[in-house]
Amino acid sequence: MEKLIACVHKRPDALCRLICFPWAGGGTSQLAQWGKLFSDSIEVFCIRFPGRETCLEEPFAKDMTSKVNEVTSVLLKDLKEKPFAFFGHSFGSYMSFAVALHLKEKYGLEPVHLFISGAHAPNSEAILPLKSTAVSDVKDEEVLSYIQILGGTPSELLHNEDIQKHLVCTFREDLRVLQTFSFEKAEMDILFSCDVTCFNGSDDKLYDLQAWQELTSGDTSFYELPGGHFYLLEPSNESFLTKHITRCIENAGL
């Protein structure tokens, strides 16, 4: 449990858990710290993917299905115990959606709210170029350049050759996992009933967020915050996000 889940601020009496899923190549350091920004009613878990932090020696996940099964098996007891919400950014949005879908189909469980950030809807054609990129053909320099353009990684880390190599490797492996995720809405009888909130940065590329509306019978809302792809790391945006997420969870009538 402790290897896969980071919980910096434990709140065993919380009414709800917020499960956070980080971006490609990312660890738990930023989102796990959200725990201190929420009230005692919300406990924050952050998913730790293999190949980083305390899971550094663990082999990278080979596909989305095995990763979803692992996350679900570790979280299931806690998710059955009390209400939960999901927050995912970029790659984490797809990961959180895949886990939510599995929980709904196999266990009849779903989040009280799904918070999506910086990602196309999985049923959108806009995601296809990302899924069809030949990961093995992309040079390390191109991956590193892309990571630098996205931002979110301190420049001093990018100047360290060992960290560079590890970051490029984890990013590449996370993208490979994403490319194994197959979702066809036409095949789905089960839609979510929870509300969905989509966030994105005003200076980030355009995402097909509207298609998220097709995936739930609940309400879908959209918020654009100032900044690029990693707008959520700005303190003012972080404050907005945590306050808004708190309000949404409280309004879920727990």
From TrEMBL:
Its EC number is 3.1.2.14. One of its GO terms (molecular function) is fatty acyl-[ACP] hydrolase activity. Signal peptide: none annotated. The keyword Lipid metabolism applies. Residues 17-245 form the Thioesterase domain. GO terms for biological process: medium-chain fatty acid biosynthetic process. It catalyses: (9Z)-octadecenoyl-[ACP] + H2O = (9Z)-octadecenoate + holo-[ACP] + H(+). Keywords: Fatty acid biosynthesis, Fatty acid metabolism, Hydrolase, Lipid biosynthesis, Lipid metabolism. Pfam families: Thioesterase. PANTHER family: S-ACYL FATTY ACID SYNTHASE THIOESTERASE, MEDIUM CHAIN, THIOESTERASE. Belongs to the thioesterase family. This is S-acyl fatty acid synthase thioesterase, medium chain.
